[in-house]
Write a structure and sequence with these properties.
The protein is α/β, with parallel strands linked by helices and 402 residues long. Helix 3 crosses helix 15.
């Protein structure tokens, strides 16, 4: 061992040294393996969650693109068991499948987390397709350089958001104004998001993987009896409860909705703890790590705050209500926005429970003065507004495969 190698190894724990050895072995293996252009590897966010754009594009490929071999990679044993039971092609890491990973010619992701895992050297030289996980208003990628919440991580920020082969956006506006300024890719394409295809398709059993089937059945039954309202707030770093925002009394809200024969569906961010002692029968709480997209075509009104989820909901052209009692505090402490925030929110903006109740009542009675503004933002946010994203991405990937 030369002196430089000794210096590199000094100060590392045994675990860190073992990781360096594994990554080195993976790099050597990947260099030896010939890439197979017809092997596609799909990797969900974090440890391989079966949600989001990766989930829906994977299901599309398995069902409709038999000329390529598609695999879903996960760390999660429950995801592995579920997909295996559904007879879907899934790989568990680690499980001795390193050579298969190294052969993958195309890797499809919707976040940056895959680059921080031990297996990454195996797939580093594959074609990397970045679907991303949402179009909204918060700064992402390169635009976060210098942000206090990411102090000391500028170099990692650049590396994780760079060197993609293809980045999929939803419109020329978001391509030019957000993604080209936030990530580096050889090609940017405005093809749309696979997860929104579910708005325009009949569901099959695989589409509902990642959802609670009992809850889905409950919402389908509720939809036949009256309106369904989805409440989907994002998380907070400022100590405010995202659900109540420290002002909302749920007992009063539930009673108010019952008067209107409405069913209330709550889907919190997966970083939010949701606790209720008891719930009335007109309220359903989705698991925070579950997939909400199959539910959304059943939703008549969405209530949110700073979450980007409403952008996808624009494709359904239904009322959106913004509830943010902590607006001033959130704006002063958050990492920042790419556009004037309120200009990108086509709906009533409520700061008190009274304002929220009034806006809900107006929407339930069919009064919708924001319809025109929603459609303007929809057309800016989406080049394609009737689904078909998976088919468009499929055609591009197969066309450029060689």
């Amino acid at each position: 061992m030369d002196s430089e190698s000794k210096d590199i190894g000094q100060g590392l724990t045994d675990q860190e040294k073992a990781m360096v050895r594994v990554k080195t072995l993976y790099t050597v293996l990947a260099d030896k393996m010939e890439k197979d252009e017809n092997t596609f590897l799909f990797i969900g966010r974090n440890g391989g969650e079966f949600t989001g754009n990766v989930k829906y594009l994977f299901l599309h490929f398995v069902k409709n693109v038999p000329q390529v071999t598609s695999w879903f990679l996960t760390f999660d044993k429950e995801v592995y068991k579920t997909l295996s039971a559904a007879k879907l092609p899934v790989l568990m890491y680690p499980s001795g499948q390193e050579e298969l990973l190294a052969r993958a010619g195309t890797v499809i992701v919707d976040s940056i987390s895959f680059r921080n895992h031990l297996y990454y050297p195996l797939i580093a030289k594959a074609r990397q397709v970045q679907l991303w996980h949402g179009v909204g208003n918060k700064k992402i990628g390169f635009q976060l350089q210098g942000a206090s919440c990411l102090e000391g991580r500028d170099q990692t920020l650049m590396e994780d958001h760079s060197d993609y082969d293809i980045l999929v956006s939803t419109s020329p506006f978001y391509t030019d104004e957000v993604f080209r300024k936030s990530l580096d890719a050889r090609e940017f394409v405005s093809l749309g998001y696979p997860r929104t295809d579910v708005f325009f398709q009949n569901l099959d059993k695989n589409t509902l993987i990642g959802c609670n089937p009992t809850q889905y059945s409950t919402i389908k039954r509720a939809k036949k009896k009256g309106p369904v309202i989805l409440f989907s707030p994002t998380f907070r770093d400022n100590g405010v409860n995202p659900l109540t925002q420290d002002v909302l009394h749920f007992g009063q809200l539930f009673a108010f909705l019952r008067q209107h024969n409405a069913h209330f569906l709550i889907k919190a961010h997966n970083r939010t703890i949701v606790e209720f002692d008891a719930l009335p029968d007109n309220v359903t709480i989705c698991d925070s790590d579950s997939d909400i997209y199959p539910f959304m075509p059943l939703v008549d009104i969405m209530i949110t705050d700073y979450s980007s989820i409403f952008t996808d909901f624009l494709l359904l052209d239904r009322p959106v209500i913004f509830f943010w009692s902590d607006f001033d505090k959130y704006m002063s402490q958050d990492r920042g926005f790419q556009f004037p925030f309120e200009e990108m929110c086509p709906g009533p903006k409520c700061r008190t429970p009274e304002e929220l109740f009034h806006s809900i009542s107006e929407a339930l009675h069919g009064r919708d003065p924001w319809k025109g503004e929603r459609q303007k933002l929809r057309d800016k946010s989406f080049l394609h507004i009737h689904g078909g994203a998976s088919e468009r991405i499929e055609r591009l990937l197969l066309k450029t495969n060689k």
